[in-house]
Amino acid sequence: MFDYGLPYSDPAFSGISLLGSVRKFSTRCRVQLVTAAPGVTAVDSNLGENIRTLLDAHCPSLTDAKQACMKPTPFLRGGMLQSLYSTMKALKRDKYSDISYDRETKVLSDGGTVSLDWYPARGPDSADARPIAIVMAGLGGSSYEYHVRCLAKTLGRDGAGYRVAVMNHRGMGRTPLTSPKIYNASDTDDYRDIVEYIRISNPNAPLLGVGFSLGANVLTKYLGEQGAESPLSAAIAICCPFDMSLTGRSLDADTFLNNKLFQPHLVATIKRFFRRNSEVLQNSPTDYDWDAIMKATRMSQIDTLVTARDSGQRDCWEHYRAASSTPYVD
Predict the structure, then answer these.
(1) At what angle do helices 214-226 and 189-201 cross, to 10 degrees?
(2) Are 101 and 143 in contact (CB under 8 A)?
(3) Do 102 and 118 form a contact (C-beta atoms < 8 A)?
(4) DSSP state, 50?
(5) Are 278 and 288 in contact (CB under 8 A)?
(6) pLDDT of residue 50
(7) Which DSSP string do the residues of 175-192 spell out, in sequence order?
(8) Which residues are 103's β-sheet partners?
(9) What is the rounded CA–CA span in Å between residue 51 and residue 74?
(10) Which candidate, 6, 92, 248, 326, has a CA 20 to 30 Å from the CA of 283?
(11) What are the DSSP E strand ranges found in 1-94?
């Protein structure tokens, strides 16, 4: 896993000069390899090579101090602006992302439903040995996100040799909510079930995990819980909010972008989800305060009223601490 040194706050409207701010941001975008201790061995490496040795040989841009840097787009100089830009492009279709998925639905033991969008389409041969990348999107995201479709097309193109299965959580990506259980950053059970299902269905295929944002946190936490028992041969956590408390404080900060864009959008998304699935959620063992949920204006309020209550926790901050994947990273 890698730390790109990106700032959590985004003083985009603080009055700092654009040129000076871009220069300052660029200097903070050095790539730092944070988990590649000499004693860590690459998973499934027949040679028993050390991870750092493999990276030095095959990906020096991550380990060479002269190369290990990111050159940010000048007008996207912070995490908030980058997220906003990605949201605006979410449904864009071009030659890099224009694909059609083969959907598979999987009903879990509690009656809940998740979906797998496959690319390329599944074939009849269960002995297919091509590796499978199991992908998870971020909060409220799905297989339809632009960056997810771009990744699927890149990995699934002729010559790359991968199959891609994008996991859509309960109620996400046009997946019906068929049980009152809602997914969250802490719960790895659904992902564990899906990985095991794909492993059994494709016994000859190596499995790789890819997670974006909230999905990256679930993936990282899952790997820590499974340890050596994980069937994944490799995993990549992209923009992982390792410390959910820190991420929560950043998202809850009193800033222009938070107050005018992110908070209203995220809160409205959750409210639509509750309205759309009201019949199912009314049967939840959790006694939701529907009036308070519909009056909420901050994600911290939503997480206290919904996510923390689902998990039997006092408030959102207790939930964030429990959901953080940081304790699972050596």
Answers:
(1) 70
(2) yes
(3) yes
(4) B
(5) no
(6) 66
(7) ----SS----SS--HHHH
(8) 117
(9) 33
(10) 248
(11) 2-3, 32-33
